[in-house]
Design brief:
The complex is a heterodimer of chains A (332) and B (447). Chain A is mainly α. Chain A is built from 15 helices and two strands. Chain A folds into two domains: 20-141, no CATH class; 161-321, no CATH class. Chain A is globular, with a radius of gyration of 21 Å. Chain B has 447 residues and is α/β, with parallel strands linked by helices. Among the domains of chain B are: 125-283, NADH-ubiquinone oxidoreductase 51kDa subunit (Rossmann fold); 376-446, no CATH class. Chain B has 14 helices and 17 strands. Classes of the chains: A mainly alpha (332), B alpha/beta (447). The interface between A and B is large, with 41 and 69 residues.
Chain lengths: 332, 447
């Protein structure tokens, strides 16, 4: 009889071709169109900030795991890479390098590692990093460089407010929407990304291309993004119909600010979003609702980051109350 | 041919690897010795009625059913009982076995060994059930539930549809496929017999669409068998799971928390079982041999063999070209739900549908990562469970909560673990959870 050593383990004995690494790689690939548009409009600043954010995030993850927590280093799983890109995408391309590094430390150190690393963080790490920077350095974080097509010099860019910022400021001064719109980029510029804004949030077009890729790869599903965007459309639509001179139209709202980046890439973060279809829809609607409330009535012109972070906090509750339909459940 | 049906919730697509699909059934030569375990079925083990030194013929009863849910066991060879002892079976545990030294091939006279098709069913309902019971038939799809128990509809219930499971959704396995191609008439008569026993008018054979030759072959054959239809099904694992198959074909959902197919008027039998019902009822032949697939990427000659129960798996591997050098794992059954064996000196039993040999590389499990809460396990679970949660609860030994999260409904199909991007041992922990929750439930009943 054979004396071979056989592996004995319970079923299943095969595993599908799925891995965390592949998922993270797909997200990174999906963010590339937006990165390219950013390079076209913001030049070297976009490359510099993104590069630093990615390297800093990966380095902090490595250092914390290796020397502080003394756990196996998992920096190759790609999650720090994605956090780095997303952090960069959420800041202006003109912010100082040390600020990016600090943001990366908060992203990885505070928002991710202090909770136990990948999969255990309740809040989206890149958004925590971004909001930390926004609150700590409001001037640098809202000093948006103007897009300059194909200019790769390191020259200081002329800066200005975002479309949402101009609108909010104008409305507070008592102006009407149609007067303000003259000074605000049109829908086409908003769509292709020829506007002031955070490094990776401006081009709805490029972000949508990436989103289609993620949908095709089945990394994300439509539940969160659609319910998020539709609830923004419906809510802003109601206000717009009620008083078009005080409230901007829905199309403006979905094309401006961080909505596209937030809805497709940040709210869909697997770790910090609900697991069931029903839960995902509730989460998306919640994000949309809070975004609109902040944009229309809050102190900040933009509310996507806050909306997602607030909804992140209720994910455990949503998961607990939204169960998938059990097979064979006898309905009473 | 009607449209492809499927179950609506969950499911995965493992690569089907049906390497032996086109290999005709061959008869494996008689081994020098057989070891016949007394517990080859779900339920109580059978009790030996022979002793050391007894002479047996092929078909002699060697062990008597040990309870209501149990089955008789017959000698699969002729010869002398050399020992009643213990041996490792496919589960890896020591089990009581009857060891018979093979001498010649002498069959009991009562068994009709002719190959002519006997279509006319003369036996009554009661006689059919009695024969099936006496001849030790069990479900050959893998669960090995005693067949006669399934044929006796409990009072107050009524069977409306008989579903014949020809799905064979496990990758690699092809024994059911070959039965449908090579034993079609016998199987169809077997189905008519089961229909008579259950007094149902309608039987549906469910077959996954990757076996188009079997669908076509049976669609032609059923013209002679009124009441039987063929239903092609979408290729989707676990299409052959009893509850999924019933849902796909009838749209009915077997109630959870211990519901049975009969609660929705359905009885499910495997194609191999239907064939053995034919042999038992029409030819008086006990369940003493079965068709087993031997397969694997590294196996020289994958194939399908007709094997006497109790033959060592080593003999089967020999017939397929020997054990490959880089073998890492040997599985009884398919790769999704089969059991890994501890060695090859293990007898083929009634429930052995196939032997799968995996290379060292394929046998390795991926390194496990952390749960990234992607929810893929939920979306593939055919029963609407939340494997990630059950895994955590079981890991933390929170068995009360585990019960209220319906862990007992898990059918152990393995779709969750197959899909998990972090390669978590989800099913391992859910099994542990089921075991512990089962203890809790039993303790509650006893109090």
């Amino acid at each position: 009889m054979t004396t071979k050593m056989l592996t004995v383990s319970p079923s299943p004995h095969v595993h599908g071709d799925f891995s965390t690494q592949r998922i993270m790689l797909d997200v990174a690939i999906a963010l590339m169109p937006a990165f390219l548009v950013s390079i076209l409009y913001f030049g070297m600043g976009a490359i510099k900030v993104t590069f630093i954010a990615v390297v800093a995030c990966m380095l902090f993850e490595y250092l914390i795991q290796k020397f502080l927590l003394k756990v196996p280093v998992t920096v190759t799983d790609g999650s720090a890479l994605v956090s780095g890109i997303l952090l960069a995408f959420n800041v202006p391309s003109s912010i100082p390098t040390w600020m990016v590094v600090l943001g990366a430390l908060v992203t990885i150190g505070v928002a991710k590692m202090s909770f136990g690393g990948l999969g255990k963080n309740p809040f989206n790490p890149a958004l925590v990093g971004r909001v930390f920077l926004l609150i700590s350095f409001p001037v640098d974080m809202t000093n948006w460089p103007r897009p300059r097509l194909m200019d790769f010099s390191f020259a200081d860019a002329v800066s200005g407010a975002t479309a949402l910022g101009k609108l909010k400021e104008g409305l507070m001064m008592g102006e009407t929407v149609d007067k303000l719109m003259v000074d605000i980029p049109g829908y086409l510029d908003l769509f292709i990304g020829n506007v002031n804004g955070s490094l990776g949030e401006m081009s709805a077009m490029a972000l949508l291309i990436g989103a289609v890729y993620l949908l095709m790869r089945r990394v994300i599903s439509l539940y969160i993004p659609l319910s998020f965007i539709l609830s923004v459309v419906i809510l802003t639509g109601i206000f717009w119909l009620y008083n078009p001179s005080r409230y901007a139209d829905p199309l403006f709202h979905i094309l401006s600010g961080g909505l596209m980046l937030g809805a497709w890439f940040m709210a869909t973060d697997m770790v910090t979003s609900p697991m069931s279809k029903m839960g995902m829809m509730i989460f998306g609607i919640g994000c949309g609702l809070i975004t609109v409330l902040i944009r229309l009535f809050g102190a900040y012109p933009e509310g996507v980051s806050f909306a997602i972070l607030i909804m992140n906090a209720v994910v455990p509750l949503i998961n607990r109350s939204c169960k998938p339909k059990r097979f064979g459940e006898i309905l009473k | 041919m009607s449209d492809l049906k499927t179950f609506p919730q969950g499911g995965v697509h493992p690569s089907d690897q049906k390497l032996s699909a086109h290999k005709q059934i061959m008869v494996l030569k008689l081994p020098p010795v057989v070891k016949i375990p007394l517990s080859q079925h779900l339920g109580a083990p059978a009790m030996a009625v022979v002793k050391k030194g007894d002479k047996v013929k092929v078909g002699t009863l060697i062990a008597q059913s040990g309870g209501f849910i149990s089955a008789n066991i017959h000698a699969s060879v002729s010869g002398t009982v050399s020992m009643i002892g213990e041996s490792t079976d496919t589960s890896g545990y020591l089990k009581e076995v009857v060891i018979i030294n093979v001498e010649g091939d002498e069959w009991e006279d009562s068994i009709d060994r002719s190959s002519d098709l006997k279509k006319e069913i003369v036996k009554t309902r009661e006689e059919i059930i009695e024969t099936v019971k006496n001849l030790g038939l069990v479900g050959l799809g893998g669960a090995t539930f005693p067949t006669h128990v399934k044929l006796m509809v409990p009072p107050g219930k009524k069977a409306q549809i008989l579903i014949i499971n020809g799905v064979e959704c496990e990758p690699y396995l092809t024994s059911d496929h070959r039965v449908m191609l090579e034993r079609a008439d016998e199987m169809l008569v077997g189905i008519k017999i089961i229909m008579k026993a259950l007094s149902v008018e309608k039987a549906v054979i469910g077959i996954e669409n990757n076996k188009s030759d079997a669908i076509k072959h049976l669609s032609d054959k059923i013209k002679d068998y009124p009441g039987i239809t063929v239903q092609p099904l979408k290729v989707m694992y676990p299409q052959g799971g009893e509850k999924q198959l019933i849902k796909a074909i009838t749209g009915r959902e077997v109630p959870n928390k211990g519901g049975l197919p009969i609660d929705v008027g359905v009885v499910v039998q495997n194609v191999g079982t239907a064939f053995s019902v034919y042999e038992a009822v029409q030819k008086n032949k006990p369940l003493l041999e079965r068709i087993v697939t031997i397969t694997g990427k590294s196996v020289k000659n994958p194939g399908n063999y007709l094997i006497r129960i109790g033959t060592s798996i080593a003999d089967l591997i020999e017939a397929a070209g020997g054990l490959p050098e880089d073998t890492g794992k040997i599985i009884s059954g398919g790769p999704m739900m089969g059991k890994a064996l501890t060695g090859i000196d293990v007898p083929v039993v009634k429930g052995t549908s196939g032997i799968l040999i995996m290379t060292k590389k394929d046998a390795k499990r991926e390194l496990q990562g952390s749960c990234i809460r992607c929810g893929k396990c939920i979306s593939v679970c055919p029963l609407g469970l939340e494997p990630y949660l059950l895994y955590q609860l079981s890991n933390r030994r929170k068995f009360d909560r585990l019960e209220s999260e319906d862990v007992m409904n898990c059918c152990e199909c393995g779709s969750c673990q197959y899909t998990c991007p972090s390669s978590l041992p989800l099913l391992d922990y859910m099994r542990l959870g089921k075991l512990e929750v089962g203890k809790l439930i039993r303790a509650r009943k006893n109090n």
